[in-house]
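### Sample
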Amino acid sequence: MIHNEMSRRRLLGLGLGLGAAATLTLAGCGGDDDSSGPAAGNGGKDYTGPKVDLKLWNGFTGGDGDIFKALVNQFNTEHQNIAVSVATYQWEDYYSKLPGAASSGNGPDVAVMHMDQLATFAARGVITELDDVAKALELSESDFAPTVWQGGLYHDKRYGIPLDMHPLGFYYNKAVMRKAGLDPDKPPTTRDEYTAALTELKKSGVQGFWVSPFQFTGGMTFYSVLHQWGGSVFDAGATRATFNSDPAVEACTWLVDIIKQGNSPANVGQDADYLAFKSGKNAFNWNGIWQINDLKKSPDTQWGVAPLPQIGSRPAAWANSHNFTIVKGRTTDANKVSAAKVFINWLSQHSLDWAKGGQVPARKSVREDAGFTALTEVNALAPELEYAAFPPAAPGLGEVMTTFYTSFNEAALGKKSPKHALDDGVAKANKQLEDNRKKYGS
Protein backbone atom coordinates (compact mmCIF):
# COMPACT_ATOMS: atom_id res chain seq x y z
CA MET A 1 0.00 0.00 0.00
CA ILE A 2 2.71 2.47 0.97
CA HIS A 3 4.53 2.04 -2.37
CA ASN A 4 1.40 2.48 -4.44
CA GLU A 5 0.05 5.33 -2.34
CA MET A 6 3.37 7.18 -2.34
CA SER A 7 3.26 7.24 -6.13
CA ARG A 8 -0.38 8.24 -6.20
CA ARG A 9 0.15 10.91 -3.57
CA ARG A 10 3.12 12.41 -5.37
CA LEU A 11 0.74 13.04 -8.21
CA LEU A 12 -1.82 14.64 -5.90
CA GLY A 13 0.89 16.95 -4.69
CA LEU A 14 2.17 17.85 -8.14
CA GLY A 15 -0.73 20.16 -8.78
CA LEU A 16 -1.93 21.25 -5.38
CA GLY A 17 -2.59 18.40 -3.05
CA LEU A 18 -5.87 20.16 -2.30
CA GLY A 19 -8.23 18.26 -2.70
CA ALA A 20 -8.39 15.64 -3.67
CA ALA A 21 -8.28 13.62 -7.79
CA ALA A 22 -8.04 12.76 -11.43
CA THR A 23 -9.54 13.70 -14.76
CA LEU A 24 -10.31 11.48 -17.66
CA THR A 25 -9.07 13.17 -20.81
CA LEU A 26 -9.74 12.35 -24.41
CA ALA A 27 -6.90 12.90 -26.84
CA GLY A 28 -6.66 12.70 -30.60
CA CYS A 29 -10.22 13.98 -30.80
CA GLY A 30 -9.60 17.47 -32.05
CA GLY A 31 -10.26 20.72 -30.33
CA ASP A 32 -12.87 23.06 -31.74
CA ASP A 33 -14.88 20.73 -33.96
CA ASP A 34 -18.40 20.12 -32.75
CA SER A 35 -18.30 16.34 -33.30
CA SER A 36 -21.56 16.49 -35.23
CA GLY A 37 -20.25 14.21 -37.96
CA PRO A 38 -22.18 11.33 -39.49
CA ALA A 39 -21.61 9.11 -36.46
CA ALA A 40 -22.07 11.73 -33.75
CA GLY A 41 -25.04 9.91 -32.26
CA ASN A 42 -27.18 11.86 -29.85
CA GLY A 43 -24.58 13.74 -27.84
CA GLY A 44 -23.02 10.98 -25.80
CA LYS A 45 -26.02 8.90 -24.80
CA ASP A 46 -25.29 6.29 -27.44
CA TYR A 47 -22.98 5.66 -30.40
CA THR A 48 -24.14 3.97 -33.60
CA GLY A 49 -21.15 4.52 -35.88
CA PRO A 50 -18.47 2.07 -37.02
CA LYS A 51 -16.30 0.38 -34.43
CA VAL A 52 -13.62 2.62 -32.93
CA ASP A 53 -10.66 1.91 -30.67
CA LEU A 54 -10.02 4.35 -27.83
CA LYS A 55 -6.68 4.37 -26.02
CA LEU A 56 -6.93 5.21 -22.35
CA TRP A 57 -4.08 6.43 -20.15
CA ASN A 58 -4.37 6.53 -16.38
CA GLY A 59 -2.24 6.54 -13.24
CA PHE A 60 -4.24 4.23 -11.02
CA THR A 61 -1.40 2.00 -9.84
CA GLY A 62 -3.08 0.91 -6.59
CA GLY A 63 -6.15 -1.17 -5.86
CA ASP A 64 -8.31 1.47 -7.51
CA GLY A 65 -6.64 0.52 -10.80
CA ASP A 66 -8.16 -2.96 -10.70
CA ILE A 67 -11.61 -1.48 -10.10
CA PHE A 68 -11.11 1.01 -12.93
CA LYS A 69 -10.03 -1.71 -15.37
CA ALA A 70 -13.04 -3.82 -14.39
CA LEU A 71 -15.33 -0.90 -15.21
CA VAL A 72 -13.64 -0.42 -18.58
CA ASN A 73 -14.05 -4.12 -19.32
CA GLN A 74 -17.74 -3.89 -18.45
CA PHE A 75 -18.11 -0.89 -20.74
CA ASN A 76 -16.45 -2.79 -23.59
CA THR A 77 -18.76 -5.74 -23.07
CA GLU A 78 -21.81 -3.52 -23.27
CA HIS A 79 -20.58 -1.52 -26.31
CA GLN A 80 -19.60 -3.77 -29.18
CA ASN A 81 -18.68 -0.84 -31.43
CA ILE A 82 -16.33 0.84 -28.89
CA ALA A 83 -13.14 -0.80 -27.63
CA VAL A 84 -11.25 0.98 -24.85
CA SER A 85 -7.70 -0.23 -24.12
CA VAL A 86 -5.97 0.78 -20.88
CA ALA A 87 -2.35 1.82 -20.29
CA THR A 88 -1.27 2.66 -16.73
CA TYR A 89 1.66 4.94 -15.85
CA GLN A 90 3.07 6.43 -12.70
CA TRP A 91 1.30 9.75 -12.33
CA GLU A 92 4.40 11.93 -12.58
CA ASP A 93 5.44 10.11 -15.79
CA TYR A 94 1.93 10.41 -17.16
CA TYR A 95 1.75 14.19 -16.76
CA SER A 96 5.17 14.71 -18.32
CA LYS A 97 4.37 12.43 -21.29
CA LEU A 98 0.89 13.69 -22.16
CA PRO A 99 1.60 17.10 -23.77
CA GLY A 100 4.24 15.82 -26.18
CA ALA A 101 2.31 12.67 -26.99
CA ALA A 102 -0.87 14.63 -27.73
CA SER A 103 0.86 17.20 -29.95
CA SER A 104 2.67 14.50 -31.94
CA GLY A 105 -0.50 12.52 -32.53
CA ASN A 106 0.75 9.62 -30.42
CA GLY A 107 -1.24 10.40 -27.35
CA PRO A 108 -4.20 8.54 -25.89
CA ASP A 109 -7.80 8.95 -26.89
CA VAL A 110 -8.90 8.76 -23.28
CA ALA A 111 -6.70 9.65 -20.33
CA VAL A 112 -6.90 10.74 -16.67
CA MET A 113 -6.01 14.06 -14.99
CA HIS A 114 -6.60 15.66 -11.60
CA MET A 115 -8.75 18.75 -11.13
CA ASP A 116 -5.76 20.78 -9.99
CA GLN A 117 -4.09 20.12 -13.35
CA LEU A 118 -6.97 21.35 -15.52
CA ALA A 119 -5.98 25.02 -15.60
CA THR A 120 -2.35 24.23 -16.47
CA PHE A 121 -3.25 21.91 -19.35
CA ALA A 122 -5.96 24.30 -20.58
CA ALA A 123 -3.51 27.21 -20.58
CA ARG A 124 -0.99 25.09 -22.49
CA GLY A 125 -3.63 24.28 -25.12
CA VAL A 126 -3.55 20.55 -24.43
CA ILE A 127 -7.21 20.11 -23.52
CA THR A 128 -10.31 21.56 -25.10
CA GLU A 129 -13.53 23.06 -23.75
CA LEU A 130 -16.31 20.73 -22.68
CA ASP A 131 -19.28 23.07 -22.43
CA ASP A 132 -20.80 21.31 -25.45
CA VAL A 133 -20.38 17.91 -23.79
CA ALA A 134 -22.08 19.08 -20.60
CA LYS A 135 -24.90 20.53 -22.68
CA ALA A 136 -25.27 17.42 -24.84
CA LEU A 137 -25.42 15.17 -21.77
CA GLU A 138 -27.81 17.64 -20.09
CA LEU A 139 -25.51 17.97 -17.08
CA SER A 140 -25.58 21.00 -14.80
CA GLU A 141 -24.46 22.07 -11.34
CA SER A 142 -27.66 20.65 -9.87
CA ASP A 143 -26.47 17.15 -10.85
CA PHE A 144 -23.31 17.55 -8.75
CA ALA A 145 -22.01 19.26 -5.64
CA PRO A 146 -21.30 22.93 -6.49
CA THR A 147 -17.71 22.59 -5.26
CA VAL A 148 -16.71 19.94 -7.82
CA TRP A 149 -18.80 21.40 -10.63
CA GLN A 150 -17.14 24.80 -10.30
CA GLY A 151 -13.75 23.12 -10.07
CA GLY A 152 -13.97 22.10 -13.73
CA LEU A 153 -13.98 25.73 -14.93
CA TYR A 154 -11.07 27.81 -16.17
CA HIS A 155 -11.68 31.36 -17.46
CA ASP A 156 -15.42 30.61 -17.29
CA LYS A 157 -15.04 27.72 -19.72
CA ARG A 158 -15.62 24.11 -18.75
CA TYR A 159 -12.66 21.80 -19.17
CA GLY A 160 -13.69 19.02 -16.82
CA ILE A 161 -16.78 16.96 -16.03
CA PRO A 162 -16.38 15.60 -12.49
CA LEU A 163 -16.35 11.92 -11.66
CA ASP A 164 -15.54 11.92 -7.94
CA MET A 165 -13.98 13.62 -4.94
CA HIS A 166 -11.35 12.29 -2.56
CA PRO A 167 -10.94 14.30 0.65
CA LEU A 168 -8.93 14.20 3.82
CA GLY A 169 -10.75 12.26 6.52
CA PHE A 170 -10.47 11.85 10.29
CA TYR A 171 -9.43 8.36 11.35
CA TYR A 172 -9.66 7.35 15.01
CA ASN A 173 -8.31 4.26 16.74
CA LYS A 174 -11.10 2.92 18.93
CA ALA A 175 -8.89 0.65 21.04
CA VAL A 176 -6.52 3.48 21.95
CA MET A 177 -9.43 5.79 22.78
CA ARG A 178 -11.01 3.14 24.96
CA LYS A 179 -7.81 2.63 26.96
CA ALA A 180 -7.67 6.38 27.63
CA GLY A 181 -11.24 6.37 28.94
CA LEU A 182 -12.68 8.02 25.85
CA ASP A 183 -15.88 6.90 24.14
CA PRO A 184 -14.66 5.08 21.00
CA ASP A 185 -17.98 5.75 19.27
CA LYS A 186 -17.86 9.51 19.84
CA PRO A 187 -14.77 10.95 18.18
CA PRO A 188 -14.10 14.66 18.82
CA THR A 189 -15.81 17.05 16.43
CA THR A 190 -14.76 20.47 17.79
CA ARG A 191 -11.53 22.14 18.90
CA ASP A 192 -12.46 21.90 22.59
CA GLU A 193 -13.33 18.22 22.29
CA TYR A 194 -10.13 17.57 20.36
CA THR A 195 -8.01 19.31 22.97
CA ALA A 196 -9.75 17.46 25.80
CA ALA A 197 -9.24 14.11 24.05
CA LEU A 198 -5.52 14.78 23.53
CA THR A 199 -5.20 15.66 27.22
CA GLU A 200 -6.76 12.36 28.29
CA LEU A 201 -4.65 10.41 25.81
CA LYS A 202 -1.50 12.06 27.14
CA LYS A 203 -2.48 11.08 30.70
CA SER A 204 -2.63 7.48 29.52
CA GLY A 205 0.85 7.75 28.04
CA VAL A 206 -0.19 8.23 24.41
CA GLN A 207 0.80 11.05 22.09
CA GLY A 208 -2.59 11.10 20.44
CA PHE A 209 -2.08 13.06 17.22
CA TRP A 210 1.23 12.81 15.35
CA VAL A 211 1.81 15.94 13.27
CA SER A 212 3.70 15.05 10.11
CA PRO A 213 5.97 17.80 8.71
CA PHE A 214 5.44 16.39 5.21
CA GLN A 215 2.70 17.20 2.72
CA PHE A 216 1.29 13.75 3.41
CA THR A 217 -0.28 14.31 5.82
CA GLY A 218 0.72 17.35 7.89
CA GLY A 219 0.73 19.78 5.00
CA MET A 220 -2.76 18.75 3.94
CA THR A 221 -3.87 19.01 7.57
CA PHE A 222 -2.51 22.56 7.69
CA TYR A 223 -4.24 23.33 4.41
CA SER A 224 -7.52 22.15 5.94
CA VAL A 225 -7.30 24.05 9.23
CA LEU A 226 -6.07 27.16 7.41
CA HIS A 227 -9.37 27.19 5.53
CA GLN A 228 -11.25 26.31 8.70
CA TRP A 229 -9.80 29.45 10.28
CA GLY A 230 -11.12 31.47 7.35
CA GLY A 231 -7.80 31.83 5.56
CA SER A 232 -6.76 30.84 2.05
CA VAL A 233 -3.59 29.93 0.22
CA PHE A 234 -4.17 32.54 -2.50
CA ASP A 235 -6.34 35.57 -3.12
CA ALA A 236 -9.53 35.17 -5.18
CA GLY A 237 -7.74 35.38 -8.51
CA ALA A 238 -4.76 33.28 -7.40
CA THR A 239 -2.50 36.25 -8.24
CA ARG A 240 -1.04 36.63 -4.74
CA ALA A 241 -0.16 34.14 -2.01
CA THR A 242 -1.99 34.78 1.26
CA PHE A 243 -0.94 31.89 3.45
CA ASN A 244 0.83 34.21 5.89
CA SER A 245 -2.40 35.93 6.93
CA ASP A 246 -3.37 36.06 10.61
CA PRO A 247 -5.76 33.08 10.25
CA ALA A 248 -3.04 31.08 8.50
CA VAL A 249 -0.49 31.84 11.21
CA GLU A 250 -3.02 30.87 13.90
CA ALA A 251 -3.80 27.58 12.14
CA CYS A 252 -0.11 26.76 11.72
CA THR A 253 0.59 27.70 15.35
CA TRP A 254 -2.17 25.37 16.55
CA LEU A 255 -0.47 22.43 14.85
CA VAL A 256 3.02 23.41 15.99
CA ASP A 257 1.74 23.79 19.57
CA ILE A 258 0.46 20.21 19.49
CA ILE A 259 4.08 19.16 19.04
CA LYS A 260 5.37 21.58 21.68
CA GLN A 261 2.76 20.36 24.18
CA GLY A 262 3.92 16.79 23.77
CA ASN A 263 0.80 15.50 22.03
CA SER A 264 2.95 14.61 19.02
CA PRO A 265 6.58 13.55 18.63
CA ALA A 266 8.87 16.05 16.94
CA ASN A 267 10.24 15.27 13.48
CA VAL A 268 7.69 12.60 12.53
CA GLY A 269 8.94 10.55 9.59
CA GLN A 270 7.09 10.17 6.29
CA ASP A 271 4.07 7.90 6.82
CA ALA A 272 5.10 7.30 10.45
CA ASP A 273 1.89 8.96 11.65
CA TYR A 274 -0.25 6.50 9.72
CA LEU A 275 1.81 3.44 10.59
CA ALA A 276 1.67 4.43 14.26
CA PHE A 277 -2.09 4.73 13.99
CA LYS A 278 -2.40 1.22 12.59
CA SER A 279 -0.19 -0.21 15.31
CA GLY A 280 -2.04 1.54 18.15
CA LYS A 281 0.65 4.07 19.05
CA ASN A 282 -1.58 7.07 18.47
CA ALA A 283 -5.32 7.68 18.35
CA PHE A 284 -5.99 10.20 15.59
CA ASN A 285 -4.81 10.46 11.98
CA TRP A 286 -5.89 12.99 9.35
CA ASN A 287 -5.40 11.13 6.08
CA GLY A 288 -6.89 10.59 2.65
CA ILE A 289 -10.03 8.62 1.90
CA TRP A 290 -7.80 6.19 0.00
CA GLN A 291 -6.64 4.67 3.31
CA ILE A 292 -10.08 3.17 3.97
CA ASN A 293 -9.49 0.09 1.85
CA ASP A 294 -6.04 -0.41 3.36
CA LEU A 295 -7.46 -0.29 6.88
CA LYS A 296 -10.08 -2.83 5.91
CA LYS A 297 -7.20 -5.21 5.28
CA SER A 298 -5.95 -4.65 8.85
CA PRO A 299 -8.28 -6.73 11.07
CA ASP A 300 -6.17 -6.06 14.17
CA THR A 301 -6.85 -2.32 13.99
CA GLN A 302 -10.13 -1.16 15.52
CA TRP A 303 -10.87 2.04 13.69
CA GLY A 304 -13.50 4.48 12.54
CA VAL A 305 -13.59 7.37 10.08
CA ALA A 306 -15.50 10.66 10.15
CA PRO A 307 -15.36 14.14 8.62
CA LEU A 308 -12.52 16.31 9.91
CA PRO A 309 -13.16 17.94 13.29
CA GLN A 310 -14.05 21.62 13.00
CA ILE A 311 -11.06 23.26 14.69
CA GLY A 312 -11.71 26.73 13.30
CA SER A 313 -14.84 28.81 12.73
CA ARG A 314 -16.06 26.84 9.71
CA PRO A 315 -15.82 23.31 8.28
CA ALA A 316 -13.24 22.72 5.55
CA ALA A 317 -11.21 19.81 4.22
CA TRP A 318 -8.43 19.33 1.69
CA ALA A 319 -9.81 17.53 -1.35
CA ASN A 320 -9.16 16.77 -5.00
CA SER A 321 -11.30 15.36 -7.80
CA HIS A 322 -11.18 13.29 -10.98
CA ASN A 323 -12.79 14.91 -14.02
CA PHE A 324 -13.42 13.96 -17.64
CA THR A 325 -11.98 16.19 -20.34
CA ILE A 326 -11.06 16.05 -24.04
CA VAL A 327 -7.48 16.56 -25.19
CA LYS A 328 -6.67 18.36 -28.41
CA GLY A 329 -4.98 16.25 -31.06
CA ARG A 330 -3.60 16.82 -34.52
CA THR A 331 -6.60 15.31 -36.24
CA THR A 332 -10.30 15.26 -35.60
CA ASP A 333 -12.21 12.00 -35.68
CA ALA A 334 -15.93 12.61 -35.19
CA ASN A 335 -16.49 8.93 -34.46
CA LYS A 336 -13.93 8.92 -31.65
CA VAL A 337 -15.35 12.12 -30.20
CA SER A 338 -18.83 10.61 -30.16
CA ALA A 339 -17.61 7.34 -28.66
CA ALA A 340 -15.58 9.20 -26.04
CA LYS A 341 -18.66 11.14 -24.94
CA VAL A 342 -20.51 7.86 -24.53
CA PHE A 343 -17.67 6.57 -22.36
CA ILE A 344 -17.73 9.73 -20.22
CA ASN A 345 -21.46 9.51 -19.69
CA TRP A 346 -21.43 5.78 -18.96
CA LEU A 347 -18.61 5.90 -16.41
CA SER A 348 -20.20 8.87 -14.65
CA GLN A 349 -23.42 6.92 -14.33
CA HIS A 350 -21.51 3.90 -13.01
CA SER A 351 -19.44 5.82 -10.47
CA LEU A 352 -21.05 3.84 -7.66
CA ASP A 353 -18.75 0.97 -8.59
CA TRP A 354 -15.84 3.40 -8.74
CA ALA A 355 -16.69 4.55 -5.20
CA LYS A 356 -15.67 1.12 -3.94
CA GLY A 357 -12.09 2.12 -4.74
CA GLY A 358 -12.28 4.87 -2.13
CA GLN A 359 -13.93 7.80 -3.92
CA VAL A 360 -17.00 9.92 -3.17
CA PRO A 361 -19.09 10.06 -6.38
CA ALA A 362 -19.48 13.57 -7.74
CA ARG A 363 -22.85 12.78 -9.28
CA LYS A 364 -25.68 13.55 -6.86
CA SER A 365 -27.94 10.72 -8.03
CA VAL A 366 -25.17 8.19 -7.34
CA ARG A 367 -24.49 9.57 -3.84
CA GLU A 368 -28.19 9.25 -3.08
CA ASP A 369 -28.25 5.62 -4.21
CA ALA A 370 -28.76 3.01 -1.49
CA GLY A 371 -25.70 1.20 -2.80
CA PHE A 372 -23.49 4.15 -1.87
CA THR A 373 -25.08 4.42 1.55
CA ALA A 374 -24.05 0.80 2.08
CA LEU A 375 -20.40 1.82 1.61
CA THR A 376 -20.40 2.97 5.23
CA GLU A 377 -16.86 4.29 5.56
CA VAL A 378 -16.63 6.07 2.19
CA ASN A 379 -20.13 7.47 2.67
CA ALA A 380 -19.06 8.87 6.05
CA LEU A 381 -16.87 11.39 4.23
CA ALA A 382 -19.50 12.41 1.67
CA PRO A 383 -20.61 15.47 3.74
CA GLU A 384 -17.18 17.01 3.13
CA LEU A 385 -18.10 17.37 -0.52
CA GLU A 386 -20.15 20.46 0.33
CA TYR A 387 -17.24 22.34 1.88
CA ALA A 388 -14.21 20.75 0.23
CA ALA A 389 -11.30 23.16 -0.27
CA PHE A 390 -10.45 22.55 -3.92
CA PRO A 391 -7.61 24.21 -5.85
CA PRO A 392 -8.12 27.54 -7.60
CA ALA A 393 -8.30 27.54 -11.38
CA ALA A 394 -4.83 28.89 -12.12
CA PRO A 395 -2.09 27.34 -14.23
CA GLY A 396 1.32 26.32 -12.95
CA LEU A 397 0.48 26.08 -9.26
CA GLY A 398 2.42 22.86 -8.63
CA GLU A 399 5.69 24.56 -7.68
CA VAL A 400 3.85 27.22 -5.71
CA MET A 401 2.10 24.60 -3.63
CA THR A 402 5.44 22.92 -3.01
CA THR A 403 6.56 26.23 -1.51
CA PHE A 404 3.44 26.28 0.67
CA TYR A 405 4.12 22.77 1.99
CA THR A 406 7.82 23.53 2.50
CA SER A 407 6.86 26.53 4.63
CA PHE A 408 4.77 24.32 6.88
CA ASN A 409 7.59 21.77 7.01
CA GLU A 410 9.99 24.41 8.34
CA ALA A 411 7.50 25.46 11.01
CA ALA A 412 6.64 21.91 12.05
CA LEU A 413 10.32 20.99 12.37
CA GLY A 414 10.99 24.09 14.46
CA LYS A 415 13.42 25.55 11.95
CA LYS A 416 11.44 28.80 11.90
CA SER A 417 8.50 30.25 13.82
CA PRO A 418 5.14 29.82 12.05
CA LYS A 419 5.05 33.53 11.18
CA HIS A 420 8.63 33.56 9.87
CA ALA A 421 8.19 30.37 7.86
CA LEU A 422 4.95 31.53 6.24
CA ASP A 423 6.26 35.03 5.50
CA ASP A 424 9.30 33.59 3.74
CA GLY A 425 7.11 31.14 1.85
CA VAL A 426 4.73 33.83 0.65
CA ALA A 427 7.60 35.99 -0.61
CA LYS A 428 8.89 33.07 -2.71
CA ALA A 429 5.40 32.04 -3.82
CA ASN A 430 4.58 35.52 -5.10
CA LYS A 431 7.67 35.45 -7.31
CA GLN A 432 6.59 32.07 -8.64
CA LEU A 433 3.09 33.36 -9.35
CA GLU A 434 4.56 36.32 -11.24
CA ASP A 435 6.68 33.95 -13.33
CA ASN A 436 3.57 31.86 -14.04
CA ARG A 437 1.71 34.93 -15.35
CA LYS A 438 4.55 35.58 -17.76
CA LYS A 439 4.72 31.92 -18.77
CA TYR A 440 1.00 31.28 -19.25
CA GLY A 441 -0.12 34.80 -20.10
CA SER A 442 -2.72 34.98 -17.34
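The chain has two domains: 2-163+321-389, 168-317+396-440. This sample (ABC transporter substrate-binding protein) is used throughout the tutorial notebook.
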